[in-house]
Structure formats: C-alpha cells, structure tokens
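Risk register update: the risk of archive-format incompatibility is retired. Evidence:
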Amino acid sequence: MSEITPELVRHLGSLARIELSEDEIARLTGQLDAIVDNIAKVAEVATADVPAMSHPLPLANVFRDDVVGEPLSLEQALRNAPDAADGRFRVTAIMGEEQ
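Archived output:
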C-alpha cells in the first residue's frame, strides 16, 4: 500500500512553497514512494546485532612514518625560482605597494 499520495506531495509542495504541476506531482509521488519503500527495507535489516559502519571494508591508515630527512640547501631551493635575490624568492609587489 502506497504511503505517498498525490495529496501528500501537493501538501509538501505547499509547505515548501514550491509550485508543482500535475505532471510533477505524479512523478514525485512515485519517486517519493520508492524512496520510502527502500528506507523501510533498510530498517527491516538494520537490527541491534548489525554494527553501524561508515565503510563496508575495513580501512587502515596508509600514511608513511614521519622520518626526518636532509633539507634542501638554499641553492637547491632557489635553483628553479623564476626570480631570486639575496637568498630569497623575489615576487612582484601586491596591492600597488612598492618595497
């Protein structure tokens, strides 16, 4: 038995202040009824002995260990810089400020 009726869809549209045509009401009645039926099916199998989960497969942390390595030298860091001066990256002024 269908829980969603055209009258209910019309009422919900009114509450949401959405003007629905008769074609939209007919289409939404079927779609909303299918959604309610599917939720009811899930509710039937979602019992207390079924644990809640956020993902169907067990996940593990895939991050690598944090290991201290050799830092780049100043020369290596600035090697591919489009513009460098005095051991720093040189960029254009912003907001019209001159330095």
